[in-house]
Amino acid sequence: MAKDKFEKIDEEVPPRTQNQQPGVEAEMDPAPIYDDENYKGSGKLKGKNALITGGDSGIGRAVAVAFAKEGANVAIAYLDEAEDIDADKTVKLIEKYGGKAKKVRIDISEEEHCEQLIDEVVAEFGSLNILVNNAGKQFPQNDIAAISSDQLRETFDTNFFGLFYLTKAALQCMTDGDSIVNTSSVTAYNGSPGLLDYSATKGAITSFTRSLALNLAEKGIRVNAVAPGPIWTPLIPATFDAKKVEQHGADTPVKRRGQPAENAPAYVFLASMDSSYMTGQTIHIDGGDFVGS
Asked: What is the superkingdom listed in this entry's lineage (predicted)?
C-alpha cells in the first residue's frame, strides 16, 4: 500500500530539540503539517466566531486553518513568543481562507486575563460561538519526588485552571447552538509514568468536559473533547531530549506520530452541527494508542 503524505514526512525524524515551552513551530524541521490541501471547507461554520487558545501553532494552528476554511472568524490566544512569528503566520493563514483573524498574546493562567480575552474577542467579532481550550504545558519527571510544588501549580494553572477560568468567562456570552471543545490527551486514558502532573490535568479536563456537558445541556451548549496521542507539535521538541523526539510516536499501533492536520477535522465536527446529538464525548486521535471505553 502506498504511503500517504502523513507517513512520508515521518520517514526522517529529526533529533532537534528546543529549550523553552511551549516551543516555536517556525524552528521545527521538518515542519508539521497544519494545512491539509485535500481538506475542503463546505461552510459548516459560516458566520461563527471562534476562539482557540494555543492557537498560534501545533494543533491550535491546524484547527484555526480548518475553521477558516469552514467560514469562521478565528481569534487565537497564545503565550509570549519571540517576535510573534508563529502567531503572525497563523493570522495570515486564517485570512488566506477568508476568515477574519485576531491574535491576543496573553497568559490564561490568571482569571482576570481570561475575562479580558473574552471581552477583546467579543468586541472584535461581536459574539463568541465556539471556544477551543487547547493551550497546555508539560514538564516530564520520572519520579514524583522531582515534581516541585511550583511545577505542579504551573502545569495545573495553564492546563486546567486557565481552561476553567476561560470557559467561565466565555459562557457569559454563549448561547443555544454554541459549542466548547476541550483538548484532552491519550495520557488521561492510558496514563503516563513520566508525565504525572500533565496527565492529571488531562484527566481533570476529561471529567470537567463530561460534567459541564450535563450542566449546560438544557441551555443547548454542547461540550466535547478531542484526546490526541503523539502529535508533531512544538511542545514535543520543547519537552523531550533528542532520543525521545526521534522515537516519538513509534510505539503506536500505526508506528508513527500524527500531524496537527489529522486532528483538525475532529474539532470541526465537534464545533459544527454535524455533532448536534453529541455532548460530553471525547474523540481519540492517537494512531490506535487507546482502544477502550
From this structure: Bacteria
User: Can you list the positions of beta strands (E) in the chain?
Assistant: 49-53, 73-78, 101-105, 130-133, 179-183, 222-228, 282-285
**pLDDT over 60 at 15, yes or no:** no
β-pair type (282-285, 179-183) = unpaired
Q: Tell me whether residue 198 is one of the annotated catalytic residues.
A: yes
Nearest partner of 182 among 59, 81, 97, 48, judged by Cα: 59
Please state, for a pLDDT cut of 90, what percent of the chain lies above it. Answer: 79
Q: Per-residue pLDDT averaged across 210-222, rounded?
A: 98
Displacement of CA 53 from its chain's centroid (Å): 7
Q: Which three cell numbers stand for residue 140?
A: 516530564
Please give the pLDDT value at position 160: 98
C-alpha dihedral over 12, 33, 164, 100, to 10 degrees? 160
Domains of the chain: 40-229+260-283 (3.40.50.720)
Q: Which three cell numbers stand for residue 244?
A: 525521545
User: For residue 258, what is the DSSP state?
Assistant: B
Q: How confident is the model at residue 21, as a pLDDT?
A: 61
Read off the C-alpha cell for 95. Answer: 485570512
Distance CA 163, CA 111 (A): 10
Q: Which of 34, 165, 189, 198 is catalytic?
A: 198
| Spatial separation of the C-alpha atoms in residues 216 and 283, rounded to whole Å | 20
3-class secondary structure, 180: strand
Contact 207, 249 (CB under 8 A): no
- Tens digits of per-residue pLDDT, 121-168? 999 999 999 999 999 999 999 999 999 999 999 999 999 999 999 999
